[in-house]
Amino acid sequence: LLLYISTRLEDLRIKLENEGLFNISYVVVNHQGAQSQRKFHRLKESVSNYIAVYQQEEQQDDVWTTLNGNKDDFLIYDRCGRLVYHLGLPYSFLHLQYVEESIKIAYCENKCGNCSYTEPDIDDICENITKNADKLAEPKPTGQHSHHHNLHRHGHHH
After folding, report:
1. 90: preceding bond cis by omega (within 30 degrees)
2. pTM, 2 dp
3. What is the spatial order of strands in the sheet that 151-153 belongs to?
4. pLDDT digits (tens, 9 = 90+) for 118-128
5. Domain ranges in the chain?
6. Engineered SS bond to 104: which of 9, 120, 129, 143, CB 3.0-4.6 Å?
7. Composition bias, kind Basic residues: at what positions (predicted)?
8. What ranges make up the beta strands (E) of the chain?
């Protein structure tokens, strides 16, 4: 499953670059379990060198526990390292638009004023993205109650 996700993430990375969104860092965090560790090299080979693959050690504190998340979550940070979105299942499925749109919004937001990390000449690209941002609506969970913040917008209190 993770190999499928990493391939889809690579496709998304290429798509965003083709749309003009550069200098985005991507990191895949591999599970701590022995089975996941055995598949680490296959996972690393499934993505380009533009996506880092981080292998947790079995004895270290679990990254997902530290980040208050689960292994299938996407945590999206802005260019200053502040958590902007934390997407859990089902919103983290890459065939849906939530991860892509969240990355675009985090890329284009200018919450803190002028930023030395902002890419030059992104105004036109971001103008189109912010026009579409209002279309990112949170679907209503069906069936069982979920206490996990599936699509959660974080303020800049990090």
Report:
1. yes
2. 0.76
3. 74-77, 83-87, 151-153
4. 666 677 788 87
5. 1-112+120-134
6. 129
7. 145-158
8. 26-30, 51-55, 74-77, 83-87, 151-153
